[in-house]
Structure formats: C-alpha cells, structure tokens
C-alpha cells in the first residue's frame, strides 16, 4: 500500500512537471512566433525603405546626368562665344 501511495505521489509530480514543461514550451513557441512576426514586419519596413532609397538614388542619378548635360551645353556655348569674340576682334 505504501508503494502504491508513493507511486501515486510520483505520478502527480510527473504530471505537474509535464504540465509545467508544456506551459514553458508553449510560451517559448508563442514568443518565437511573436518575434518571427515582428521580424517579418521589420523586413517589410526595410524593403519599403530600400525602395524609397533606390528611387531617391535613381532621381539623384538622373539629376546628375541632367546637370552634366547642362554643364556640357554651357561649355559649348562658352566656346562658341569665345570664337565669335575672337572673330569680332580680328574683323575690327
């Protein structure tokens, strides 16, 4: 009878131990999924930010090309003006 009583106590302890382990495990799994969800949110935010940065970079590249073209045009006009001035000096 005593052994049966001790086995029952042991079974009760084991039962609560497994309940506790199950609780810990479920908490860990829940925490893992919360973290995973947040990582996914952050990843989406980073993708959005990356798209914005790429768009800004593309716009800056386009602006730089336009500025280089404008500078080249001004240089050509400046050369033409120099030629006109030199021709005018030689004529006068």
Any overview of this molecule?
The structure is a single chain. The protein is mostly helical and 92 residues long. The chain has one domain (1-92). 98% of the residues lie in helices and 0% in strands. It contains one helix and no strands. It has one helix spanning 2-91. The radius of gyration is 39 Å and the shape is rod-shaped. The model has no long low-confidence stretch (mean pLDDT 89).
Task: Fill in the keyword field for this structure.
92 residues, mainly alpha, rod-shaped
| Major β-sheet profile | none
**Fraction of residues in β-strands:** under 5%
| Through-space gap between termini | 134 Å
Helix content: over 70%
Sketch the topology as an H/E string, one letter per element.
Answer: H
Instruction: Point out poorly predicted stretches.
Output: none
Instruction: Figure out the total of helices.
Output: 1
Structure summary, number of beta strands = 0
Give the overall shape: rod-shaped
Question: Quick recap of the structure?
Answer:
With 92 residues, the protein is mostly helical. The chain is 98% helix and 0% strand. The protein has 1 helix and no strands.
Helix and strand arrangement:
Elements: H1 2-91
């Amino acid at each position: 009878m005593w052994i049966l009583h001790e086995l029952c106590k042991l079974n009760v302890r084991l039962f609560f131990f497994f309940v506790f382990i199950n609780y810990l495990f479920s908490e860990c799994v829940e925490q893992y999924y919360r973290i995973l969800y947040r990582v996914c949110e952050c990843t989406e935010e980073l993708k959005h930010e990356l798209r914005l940065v790429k768009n800004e970079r593309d716009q800056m590249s386009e602006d730089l090309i336009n500025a280089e073209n404008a500078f080249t045009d001004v240089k050509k006009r400046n050369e033409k003006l120099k030629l006109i001035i030199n021709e005018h000096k030689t004529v006068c």
